[in-house]
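[stage:ingest] chain + small molecule (zinc ion)
[stage:ingest] validated
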Amino acid sequence: MTFDRSLKIAPSILSADFAAFGAECRAVEAQGADWIHVDVMDGHFVPNLTFGPQTCAALRPHIKGVMDVHLMIAPVDPYIDAFAAAGADIITAHVEAGPHIHRTLQAIRAAGCKAGLALNPGTGIDAVEYLLDSVDLVCVMTVNPGFGGQKFIHSQIDKVAALRRMIGDRPIHIEIDGGITPETAPLMRRAGADVLVAGSAVFKGGSVENAGVYGNNIRAIRAAAG
Ligand code: DX5
Ligand code: ZN
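[stage:predict] done
[stage:export] tokens:
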């Protein structure tokens, strides 16, 4: 992965057909997705359950580009090697998931992956300040993690702008996760984000058989973001 701040759209497979993940990944990539965002939930850190490293390993051959794994689990550390072995390019852990986030980020890099740090809406960017040398991506949650299709939280716009200033020239991606649509995408792009995760706004109205809709949805977000 080479670093750049160009706009990247990362469909979240949380809104895909769970019985057809491989085909869904191939379909959204063929329709212009830059990264594939994979939401792992444990029913403990967040009030929902999805899947684990075995599903990620099964998905890997169906993803040509970046597999972006968002861990909404606690604890994180016992599972890092399994997600790395499953082929994750980026592993993102929540700062709220445990007391030793620096150790977690180090372990992710030691496993050969890019290290991402996710912040819940109530967490300030001071949580990032002393971790700038240890992160490759900061994920700002613009909904409370756990479910797709929630409403975008506007207070996060100023947070992203402040984070962008804090990051400066460092090669750190700013990813936005939750409630991204053609209406909210430009707000976040202007504030300094380069990766926009979108679940419902990409998958709505389409299917593997009717994947052109995914392409239209991705282009609408990209065009609006500018
Ligand atoms: C929420 C997940 C998101 C979610 C986004 O906990 O981390 O990735 O799927 O879904 P939308 O785009 O529908 O808000
Ligand atoms: Zn996510």
